[in-house]
Design brief:
elongated, D-Maltodextrin-Binding Protein, domain 2, 17 helices, 9-stranded mixed sheet, alpha/beta
Length: 490
Amino acid sequence: MRLRLGLWLIALLAFVAPLSVLADAHALPDLAGREVVIAVENAYPPFNYIDEATGEAVGFDYDVMNEICARINCTPVFEQTTWDALLAGVAAGQFDVGASGITITEEREQTVDFSIGVIATEQVLLTRLDEDRFATVQEFADGDFILGTQTGTTNYDKGVELVGEDRVTAFGEFGTAVQALVNGDVDAVIIDSTAGQGYVGTNDDALTIINEPLTSDFLGYAFTEGSDLVAPFDMALESMIADDTLMLLMTKWFPPALPDLMGREVVIAVENAYPPFNYIDEATGEAVGFDYDVMNEICARINCTPVFEQTTWDALLAGVAAGQFDVGASGITITEEREQTVDFSIGVIATAQVLLTRLGEDRFATVQEFVDGDFILGTQTGTTNYDKGVELVGEDRVTAFGEFGAAIQALVNGDVDAVIIDSTAGQGYVGTNDDALTIINEPLTSDFLGYAFTEGSDLVAPFDTALATMMVDGTLEALMNEWFPPASGS
């Protein structure tokens, strides 16, 4: 996937590295199962807390730490401690890592090392839902209201700056401060916006946030000074940013507000000749496919009206680049070359290029046997499959067609010996021709597919936000299972 972040995410992610420095997953270090002791409060939702329903420790920090250790082969060992003891324990080497929505400050950098910034967050005022004595930060500051927060935090420091020490009541845990707010013992709580969203999410009948950020900070993970863990953790985090894993975890734990496009018409270019992405169902005459379902679901979430227009593959990307279409949807591989003329959504599908062959083929059984022979390879013009085919067997042995359907028919007819195609589309053709076609199970290369937009389009961010929520809530997976059913027994 690509680092294509919605506007809501840009406000949360602190670190956006150039693609040239993003870590290749294959180049990540291997810590050989090393145990890493990670200090958490378990009292700071949604970063880390005890789920009352299950009694399990959960949260954003748990998911991020587990994912990091899965990538660099370490064993996370979580230890609960208080906020007051967390950073001191990391500084003293009692813990290897501190994870609890920690603001990166110059003062703290005197005693601990930090990861790259993981989240950019703002300090806000959390208030009761029925509060009618003040509606703005200034009205709160001008009154004699009491402000709750947690001791030893940057929120406490900002609270004192805002209203003076006499009007700040500090608690050992944010959960206690929030409960004091609910009980009426304090009038507001100053808190990081991300954590505030978490408390509102579990108390949406009692709490709300004044939408006036007081300051912006960057949050990260703390390490003992000089720790050899900083570099591998940073590399893992960079790889999680590059493949959108971090974005999806943020969508899970800090659900974004979906934008409202007010019914705006969005013109979506499709081929209607690339099953199962988009095609004409012969039985009904209707245009159907994965792209139709995804686009309809996106527009249902952000209130837009999809208008599908059929075009050829050759004209699709050129039409999007020229602004003739708003979106291009047809199993489009995200490439650096294409990114010079169009913008892309986050990656929607990771797919591999494969060889599609006839079911009874006995002249070759592997890609290498195909390459070593004098067999003819079919594909579609102007695709990354065509480029890979030429690389594989040379231009003289590649026969290109205007549509993949024509290439498939040529394969069935015996006019070509194999077709190079994205594995997802290949599954679609096998599904409708399972008595005639099969796939050689040797992927040639891996690519990410997404949706193309006119450069600078204001649709990219809302579409990305909708796609991210669909990934997190399982909708996208359900659509993929529907249109790209896994092979039986897999």
